[in-house]
Specification:
Length: 399
């Protein structure tokens, strides 16, 4: 018997229980807003462009079409006098413009900071637009994911701040921010509910039956790991070129690995690697020795009433957690004394459903990710896997 689908609002494209329509009344903005939307943002559960579509009288959403793996896009027809909201090197501060200097149409890029950067860099029809920037006094209200820079606001926050600069007396912009807050609140509430009932009706028996016992052990030293590997050459991928990890108590490990399959310029930018990052790469045996030392760092515990000398001999079990099975197997081959677990496999057993990409799952669950001092995509993925690990453990404890 098929499960009944949840009621859905097709106007705001949210579940009916999280409908945002009641929060929004179109604002009569004189400056037209044109959103260039990255393909990955169209169905993102926390995308904010939908709020602009419902909350502004003059707005156009342009879904970008990209050519292959590059960020080159099919040009979009924009009106004369359009200006781009983007913090390029020569961008002017919107708040400093006179009434005569204000643009009549505002173009914004809807995507992550890295996606927006590539779209700006690789498309002359975008970068040729006059650029303006914001200088916000506070960071983003986006409590679910962390932006890399203070001026990196969500799309709706950026547009609201810009419209306030470009209109002398524009009423109603606070409703867009209220709807944005409501969307985030709903996701966080759904996450808390999911933490308590995350096993749902699809699983049978005790919730913890679907989680490896090693992960639930009270004395386990849990380390979340993430690896990045360049595409293989002649069928041999070799070791990953990066190994990053974080313990549940926040200790961080991050090393570059010497490998014949180092990423090319395209992959380096896709993964957010700094140009000199690979210069610090070390031989794999050295990286693994340091990684073992990192994992051993907190594996000694002091028994109640015991002596510190004896505690040094009492080692806690090591559990290495990764999102995908490929990393799990790679760690199993090199960390024989550890229990290696794939979070994706664990979540598949818990949910009894097809598991989406990690970033989409974290967004759907409304999980808050913590900042980690790991640059680029590795930092984001590691933070997301860390959040999923805590979510699973919190759900098991609540059950």
């Amino acid at each position: 018997m098929m499960a009944e689908a949840r009621p859905h609002c097709y106007r705001c494209d949210k579940p009916a229980s999280m409908c945002l329509c009641g929060h929004l009344t179109p604002i009569p903005n004189e400056v037209g807003v044109h959103v260039l939307q990255h393909p990955r943002e169209r169905r993102h559960p926390l995308g904010t462009a939908r709020l602009l579509r419902l909350g502004l009288a003059s707005v156009s959403i342009h879904g970008l079409q990209m050519e292959g793996r590059s960020a080159v896009c099919v040009p979009v027809s924009l009106p004369q006098g359009a200006a781009l909201l983007y913090p390029s090197e020569d961008a002017r501060d919107l708040a400093s413009l006179t009434v005569e200097e204000r643009p009549k149409h505002l173009v914004v890029i809807d995507g992550t900071w890295a996606q927006a950067h590539r779209i700006f860099r690789d498309n002359p029809w975008v970068s040729a637009l006059p650029c303006y920037r914001l200088a916000p006094d506070v960071g983003s209200r986006y409590r679910i994911r962390i932006e890399p820079r203070l001026e990196c606001l969500s799309t709706v926050e950026s547009v609201v701040a810009a419209l306030r600069c470009l209109h002398d007396d524009l009423q109603g912009t606070e409703t867009l921010i209220s709807a944005f807050d409501a969307m985030i609140d709903d996701q966080i509430a759904a996450s808390k509910k999911s933490s308590t009932h995350f096993h749902g009706k699809r699983t049978s028996g005790r919730p913890t039956n679907h989680i490896p016992h090693a992960l639930l052990a009270s004395d386990a030293r849990i380390v979340v790991a993430y690896t990045e590997t360049a595409p293989p050459q002649r069928g041999d991928s070799g070791p990953p070129f990066r190994l990053s990890a974080v313990s549940l108590d926040g200790e961080v490990f991050d090393r570059m690995v010497q490998t014949k399959n180092a990423p090319d310029a395209y992959l380096s930018e896709l993964m957010g690697l700094e140009s000199q990052a690979l210069d610090t790469a070390q031989p794999i045996h050295q990286v693994m020795a340091e990684f073992r030392e990192f994992c051993e760092g907190s594996r000694c515990r002091l028994p109640r009433g015991g002596l510190a000398k004896k505690a040094l001999l009492q080692r806690t079990p090591l559990v290495l957690v990764s999102w995908n099975v490929k990393t799990q197997r790679w760690l199993e081959e090199r960390m024989g004394d550890a229990t290696c677990i794939s979070l994706k496999a664990v979540w598949a057993n818990i949910s009894r459903a097809r598991v989406p990409a990690l970033d989409k799952l974290v967004g759907t669950l409304g999980l808050a990710t913590e900042y980690l001092p790991v640059t680029g995509r590795a930092g984001r993925r590691l933070s997301q896997a860390h959040a999923m690990t805590r979510h699973i453990l919190d759900g098991a404890n609540a059950a």
